[in-house]
């Protein structure tokens, strides 16, 4: 395995203190480029054709519609967007499914967790149909004890009530739990729930330059905490 220079912001994890690992999916384990292309290009393009608009006008309209529900469960709900935009969103996702990719060293990391026999859970805001698509396109599904969508719990991960509700479904001690996520609002909500070990993914998309968090320890690559 090649040597990778660690992020200057990175700090080593004391794995002896960790018994449960919670992992986000989009942007954390999987390249966010797929979702960015889908929501910022594929959907506006389809909307432009549907409404007879230019791409730029359609994109402006669609972004305005997105903004109304940003940070809520509806933002991640494919059924909501199918109804709101009048198009089959899950079917449309198939058009760019070839862009679904696992971030570097993710499989190595998941393999290590399995070898350590650590309870490992996928905890995502993604809709069930999006999860199904990504599990079919990648090998990550086999590594988790459970897979939980925020839609099953009724709250987005950014919301305060999500974490105690998750804890009722998945028994874990916040003091001995690691959460890795690319979303700072999610990490803040988890921190408020007293989850002790938090890591921020600084490069969720392979097509955009990474950004280190001001509040949380950031990593560019899972190799840094292996």
Major sheet description:
6 strands, parallel
H and E string: EHHHHHEHEHHEHEE
Give the strand line-up of the largest sheet: 3-2-1-4-5-6
CATH topology of the largest domain: Rossmann fold
**Computed Rg:** 18 Å
Distance between the termini: 12 Å
Helical proportion? 25-40%
Contiguous uncertain segments of 5+ residues: 1-8
Oligomer: single chain
CATH level 4 superfamily of the largest domain = HAD superfamily/HAD-like
Proportion of strand residues: 5-15%
Strands, total number? 6
Regarding CATH, which class of the largest domain? Alpha Beta
CATH architecture of the largest domain: 3-Layer(aba) Sandwich
Question: How does the SSE layout of this entry go?
Answer:
Elements: E1 20-23, H1 33-51, H2 55-68, H3 78-85, H4 89-93, H5 106-115, E2 119-124, H6 128-137, E3 146-149, H7 150-153, H8 162-169, E4 177-181, H9 184-192, E5 197-201, E6 218-219
Parallel strand pairs: 1-2, 1-4, 2-3, 4-5, 5-6
């Amino acid at each position: 395995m090649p040597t990778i220079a660690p992020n200057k912001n990175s700090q080593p994890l004391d794995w002896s203190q960790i018994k449960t690992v919670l992992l986000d999916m989009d942007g954390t384990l999987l390249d966010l480029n797929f979702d960015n292309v889908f929501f910022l290009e594929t959907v506006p393009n389809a909307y432009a054709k549907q409404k007879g608009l230019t791409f730029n006008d359609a994109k402006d309209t669609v972004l305005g519609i997105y903004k109304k529900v940003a940070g809520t469960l509806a933002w991640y709900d494919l059924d909501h967007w199918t109804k709101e935009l009048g198009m089959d969103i899950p079917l449309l996702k198939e058009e760019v499914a070839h862009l679904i990719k696992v971030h570097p060293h993710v499989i190595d990391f998941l393999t290590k967790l399995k070898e350590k026999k650590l309870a490992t859970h996928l905890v995502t805001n993604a809709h069930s149909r999006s999860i199904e698509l990504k599990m079919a396109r990648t090998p990550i599904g086999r590594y988790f004890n459970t897979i939980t969508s925020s839609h099953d719990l009724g709250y987005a991960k950014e919301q305060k009530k999500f974490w105690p509700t998750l804890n009722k479904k998945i028994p874990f001690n916040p003091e001995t739990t690691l959460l890795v996520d690319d979303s700072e609002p999610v990490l803040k909500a988890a921190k408020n729930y007293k989850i002790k070990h938090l890591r921020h993914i600084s490069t969720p998309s392979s097509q955009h330059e990474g950004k280190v968090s001001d509040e949380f320890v950031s990593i560019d690559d899972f190799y840094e905490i292996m």
